[in-house]
Amino acid sequence: MRTLLELCGVFALAATAAGCVKGNPDLAIDAGFSAMGGMLAVADCGYSVTTYPGAEAPKLAVQRFGTDPTPRLVHLGLVGDPKTSVVAQWRTMDETTLASTVRLGVGANLPASALTDVRTGLEFAYLSTGGQSVRMHQAHLCGLTAGTSYSYQVGSIDLAGAEHFSPVYTFHTAPDIVAHPDAQVVLAFVGDSRGGYDVWQQLIAQLQQRTPDLVLFSGDAVTFGITQFEWEDFFQRAEPLFATVPMVSANGNHEDNAINYYSQIALPGDQQNFGLDYGFAHLTVGNDTPEDPTAITGAFHDAIAADFTASDAARWKLFMHHQPIFSASTKHGSSLTLQQAWQPMIDQHHIDLVLNGHDHDYEVSKPMVGNTVASGPDAATATVYVVAGGAGAELYPNGTQFWTQYSESTYSAAIIEVSRAALTLDAFHPDGSPIQTGFSKTKP
Ligand SMILES: [Fe+2]
């Protein structure tokens, strides 16, 4: 384990910010500072927050301020039940600011003066490229009411009484489908923005117009997971949407399990393989680029299978991971490794939609069971594979295979609508024009 002194020496950029200033005990950050990660129980939520090697242990925020406590890159995540919780996340460019406060109020578009529910968050720093120390703030907001809009802002009031808060944003919790069986939710589905943030920003604006409840990001937000400035472009361009709609992501090969990824995006469980219910959809997320490749057929396979089993009774089942199991693109194409390792359990549990990226095109498969196109009654329980890896990264050629329902080499994002009776997916180009072939399935 590195000591604080070692970190001060190695990570010169972080040294002053990390409190390595001799003679000023007020700046001598936490004696236990280490970048080995740690855990903090969040009592209100009934779960713990874990950080990983490369980051400090999470700590309850305290009233400590640096030169720029302004909250930046505000975005929402999910760790607990989306009906009753959300996670507000932001960073301060000034690494020494530890104060983390959320002001909350019930109702949409409230004035700041009406945000009377004040909650304290947690904070931790992680070490990025070149020793840059990035201070993250998280507020885990639990005990919320299902299907309800909330206004909030994040930030702090410094010791001189000056306020450093974000704009007021509005988010809403997931509906309670037992109380409201007519509930319909809208999921945004997009991936592979890396290096193409102008297109990313266009797609974000288009998605915002379609008022999604949840964003599903299938990986490859950045070219190099450890490169902080790319993450800041990614989050800054998306802030109008991400500050109002929680985002759930899968680790892509370009994230490469970097500490920047796990530190900036709060996710359920181990942040790699997990599931959550949102409306009538159950979403399972898998990491198909594990640090240990044998996990594909081992621990990660088993974790995904366990989530499939636990959610077998779900009305609609979605599975998101990064690398496509069926892709006709001539760039990467189908992952035969994942076909062998994961498709049998996808077939066994009759997953409705598999959501992938990695190939930078848009593709919808025919309903598949094994390596066969399903027809007749079998098609109703077969799985359709969608590749929508066109969020900004350079386009790849599409192709056509026997399983291809539709393919196009284009930038794209998709909207998935979920009700008790129907599951539909429709995609569009960055200018908003529709991509004609999507997906639609109904159940009595
Ligand atoms: Fe990829």
Write up what this structure looks like.
The radius of gyration is 22 Å and the shape is globular. The model is unreliable at 1-32 (pLDDT under 50). With 444 residues, it is α+β, with helices and mostly antiparallel strands. It has 2 domains: 4-73 and 89-172, no CATH class; 185-442, Metallo-dependent phosphatases (Purple Acid Phosphatase, chain A, domain 2), CATH 3.60.21. It has helices at residues 4-10, 12-17, 197-209, 228-242, 259-264, 299-310, 336-348, and strands at residues 38-42, 47-51, 59-60, 71-77, 86-92, 101-106, 117-120, 122-127, 133-141, 149-157, 163-165, 169-172, 185-190, 214-217, 247-249, 274-278, 281-285, 316-320, 353-356, 362-365, 368-369, 372-373, 384-388, 404-408, 413-418, 422-428, 434-442. 52% of the residues are buried. The structure holds fe (ii) ion (FE2). The site of fe (ii) ion has 6 residues, from loops.
